Every structure is written in C-alpha cells, then in structure tokens.
Request: fold
Amino acid sequence: MKKIIDILTDKMQQAFADAGYDARLGVVTVSDRPDLCEYQCNGALAAAKQYKCAPIVIAKAVLEKLDASVFSSVDIVMPGFINLKLSDGFLTEYLEKMRTTPDFGVEKTGDGKTVVVDYGGANVAKPLHIGHLRAAIIGESLKRLYRFLGYNAIGDVHLGDWGLQMGLIITALKERQPELCYFDPDYTGEYPADPPFTLSDLEEIYPYASGKAKQDDDFAAQAHAATFELQKGRRGYRAIWEHIMRVSVTDLKKNYDDLDVHFEQWLGESDADKYIPDMVEEIKAKGMAVLSDGAWVIPVAEETDKKEIPPCILLKSDGSAIYATTDLATIVQRMRDWNPDKILYVTDKRQSLHFEQVFRAARKCALVRPDTALEHVGFGTMNGEDGKPFKTREGGVMRLAHLIAEIKDVVRGKVIENQIAEDKVESTTAKIALAALKYGDLSNSPAKDYIFDIDRFSAFEGNTGPYILYTIVRIKSILRKYGAYEHLPIQNAANDYARDLMLSIGRFSSCAEFALTSSAPNLICAYVYELAGAANKFYHETKILSEPDSALKEGYIALIALAKRVLETSISLLGFDAPEEM
Reply:
C-alpha cells in the first residue's frame, strides 16, 4: 500500500512532466506551515533558475495539469509555493484501507532480505551495567523496525567471552582453589557438572582479578598465559569456561528479559575464533595484508580521506589476534551462516574509527558481497545531572538491575496513588517503568548524549513514555465502555480535531520507513508523541460516548480504535507495551 506522500508526489511529478518540466521537481512534503496547508510542493522555486522562468508562472502551468481528485484545495502562494489539502473522501478511504489491511498496509520493503543486528556486546562474567543500556534498547528497537518492514532480522548479542577476563578468572580461581581437578594437567576423568562458583562468586572474582593484574606483573602474566591456553584448547580451562558461560549467560538472559530485549543468536567472540586461521591465511594469500613492525596489517586508507585512517591490525607482532581480527572473523561467520544483505552494529560512537577500519578491511578483502551494507550506529552517553556519565551515589558504575529497580520504585508510588487493584500493581508498575526508561532514552537521537532524569522520564504528562501509555489506556477505557467496535468503518472527519487525528494516523507508514532508513528510533518517538497529542485533543474536544447520533458515534469510535492500534504498534517497535489501566 503506497504511502500518502508517495501518492501525492506521483501526481505532482506527472503534472510537472505534463507541463514540460523535469518530473523530479514534483516532490511533495508534509507542510511546515500546518496553519496554511497539509502538504506542499516547492518544485516551482527550484525550477525557476533551471528554466529561466518566474516560479509563479511554473506553478500555474503545473496546476493546470494536476490531477486534483485527491485534494480538497490546491493553492499557489507567492513566489510559487503549491499548497495542498487532502479531500475528505481520499483521507477516509486511505484510513479505511489502513484499518482493514495487515500492518496498516505498510510496504514490506525488506521482503526477501536479511539483516543482522549486532547490539548486545555484554561481557561474560560481568553484570550488566548502565553502559549496556543504550546498545540493548536502541538495537532491539531497530531490529523490531526491520522485522516490521519485512526483513528477516537476526539479533546477535555478540558476547565478549573469549578475552583476557577469562584468563583473569581462571588464574584467580586457581589461586583460591588450586586443588580443583581443572588445574591438574594429568586429569582425564569427567569434570563436575556443577560449577565451583556461584554468580555472586564470579561477580566478586573478576574485579579482584582485574585489580590485582594491574599491580602484580606475575599475576598478569599468568592470566595472559591462561587466556592463551584456554584459546588453544586446554581441557580443564575449557571446562571452567563452559561453567562461566552457563552461570553468566543465564543471568544475562534474565536481565535482558527484564528489558524486553531478546536475541535470536547468543554467539560470542569464541564462535568466531575457529574462522580466524583460514581467514588470516586467505587475506595474506590475496596480498591484502602487509608486515609492519612485525605485525600483519591491512592498509585501509583512501586518497579521498580527510583524516588519517590507520591500518587495520590483523595480527599483533606476537601472532595473537585482536578485537578487529575477531570482528572480521565474525563477518566471515555471518556471511557463511546467513549471507545477510546488511550487518548493523549498535555500539558506543567512540568505536566509529574501529568500525570504519573493519568495514574497509572486510570490503578490501572481499569478506562480504559487494552489495552487502555495513553500518555502525554509534550512540552517545547517558549522563547524570552534572553532565557526566551516570554514576551511583557512591560514584561507581550502576548496575542495570539497580537502575530498573529505582525507576520501578518511583513509578510504583504513582500507581498506588491512582488506586490500581493490589494484584495488578507490580505488573502495571513494570510496564510503566519500562516505558519511562526506554522512551526516555529512545526519544533522543542515538548519537546524542543526554541527561538521564528519572523524575522527568516517569512523569505522566509531557513528552514521556508514561504519557503515551496513559493516552492508550484512556482510549482502551472508552472502547470497553462502548462495546464491540472492530467492525466499524472509518468515516469522514466530523470536526477539525478528527481531521488532525486522521492526518497523523495517515503518516505512520512514512514515519516507520524514514526511521528505518535513518537508523533513528527517535523518529518513532516523535511520531508517537504527535499522534498521542492529536488523540488527546480529539477526545477532550469531542463528546464521544455521549454523542446522540449513533452513526456519528460509530465514526468517532472507529477513529480512536485505529489510533489505538497505531499507537500500540508504534510503542511495540520501541520495545514496550501498555497496561490495561494506570
């Protein structure tokens, strides 16, 4: 189903062509002056220089050729703006098609295509903290958006499970319990099914080991050696690693579930490790890697670069792989397993240079198809009121679970004040708290740093998640009181508030598509806020349930029911949903 903006553009471009002008000039946009018109075309102004003719003359010529069947009015305003308003019939027919077509008729632009979204990046054996928040919720929203538009979207957590932190834990565990069979190189029996540590133990062991390695060179050397032996397949160390994975991943899944973030693949750096040897040899054989101070590197600088782009290091001088090596091997794995049309990485924007190097190296070495898109969505930091990265009151990095608990505490009080049934307090609190957290983050451009403000994000008024939920809940209440409504068709706008709401609903497809092409969930937030505002104005200014004219009432109900569905779909794309009451 075509977007409204495309239908209008097609008609305007045909008119430009029929009037003897370049059809590409007939692009229609949403009006930036809604007090004057709903849509506009400024092509006549752009054409004036090209055709050496006054824009007003061009606009009038185009208007004579325009099929105006979908417009209630078409006005030309000096010096040559073409202002457009939709006819009631066209708008009503379009919304009725949205109501009766799956997914509101949104065009499935990704049909037959696969995208891999790499957006977790959690490190095994470490608890999730607020530094993991933005990757999780921005990535989840983008994945949902791709899936909604028809893509086979695969979310991969890409765990940090193969690096030095493993050697540090193994070394610290050996220091504490040297008698364990895992450390006996001559042991040939089965290793215990239960791990020799708990999750709490792991969370204490890693920071201890990390701190000691910075002060004790011998301990650090042992940790590096343990990491090397693990990666080379030492049996006892692999068994410890498997214990760490089971204990840690179980906890990570619980934390991600609390965020309503779900991955199709729980792969990590370890899964890419087996691809490294063959990949390295292939890159060397192609002559794409060169020796530099004993290290193998892939030159990726280009003549058009305006800043220095250092080579991508393939192997260090001691022959070991690094982060870039693993990322290149992961690309190899993804191309072999899924052959994606696009791989999207959601990480801190400070990694932008790293991904520029990796992407260039992947293309230069033909690790991806020429038409496979590689994109890095870099996000900014979540800051406290002091403008610095958000910290606990004690100055440490806050665990994600603690942050969620804090928001729930704030929201719970408001839910209880609203006299929600006792047995629904916790489930309602959880939904509102998640909306506050996710919307508060996603309403900002991904690349932007922002101030995290629990009180503002959890407010039931203003541009917040709870406000959006409250709008949906109020509509649900009206629909419950009315009764069966699913069969009711959309009718012509009965007042200006109804028309504004209809126009907002009609822009859903354009918004979803633009948010995807821009990799910007904040555009969905902006749309949802606009739509919620239009819905609120409509039911504040219109007597819906008390309307004596039954036909008119049916039209009102059909309209708010469609608004509710579009709002619910939009917030689902953002990664949260609405309670029944609040």
